[in-house]
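Example record

One chain of 264 residues, shown exactly as stored in the release files.
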Amino acid sequence: MPAEAALEARDISKTYGGRRALDRVGLRVERGEMVALIGPSGSGKSTLLRAVSGLVTVDAGPGRISVFGLTVQQDGRIAETVRQVRQRTGFIFQQFNLVGRLTLFSNVMIGALGRLPFWIGLFGAWPHEEKLKAMAALHRVGVSDYAGQRANTLSGGQQQRGAIARSLVQGAELLLADEPVASLDPVAARRVMDTLSSLNRDDGLTVVVTLHQVDYAMRYCRRIVALEAGRIVYDGPAKGLDRALLAKIYGPEFQEALFEEEDR
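Predicted structure tokens for this chain:
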């Protein structure tokens, strides 16, 4: 019997007003894959990622989304098992989603709240073993030296790696990263992508990342899924994407999706 996929979306649609953000999309990602979702603005890639996490409810109908065999949503309704899914899923936002006045260490410790009593987080009475996990996670992503600094004093790249460390403390097996490098300079962006790639390659985490920068998608991900107007128009190896296909997918935005040579 084959192992359950890391995530599977079947026949899902999402409508905003009269616009179809997702149009009968199907996607299966196996455990241990690192997959990039690309496409122009409004193509549906962020909506798809948020639907997988249960942050967006899809339209009623035959559509179903599951993660590690547990239902996230079906027939336009969030399933009761979504809480179990979220314990195993880390979501990395474009704008880091850290509490600026708290230290980086405290932000990372928030990842442990799902398995600890509420009062422990309220009073900061973290168990010693949880503190060790947090520091190990910060070290794993290369920002342990900044553990005592307030998050809002750190660079964007440092904050984003802190957000990834929080997901490690949470115990995530699947990382969903929504434009995690969109607001970063090229050097910081590469460090974040190197971190995600290392966690996939060395730690076995499944990673699904939406990217506007096609160069990063092709450099870091073996498999690329391209969306256009809410539909998947390409799903295959990175080497299968050529300039003609990219120009067809992106249209006038094609050159904006590629870095200038000096940034490589």
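Notes: The chain has two domains: 1-88+173-257, 98-169.
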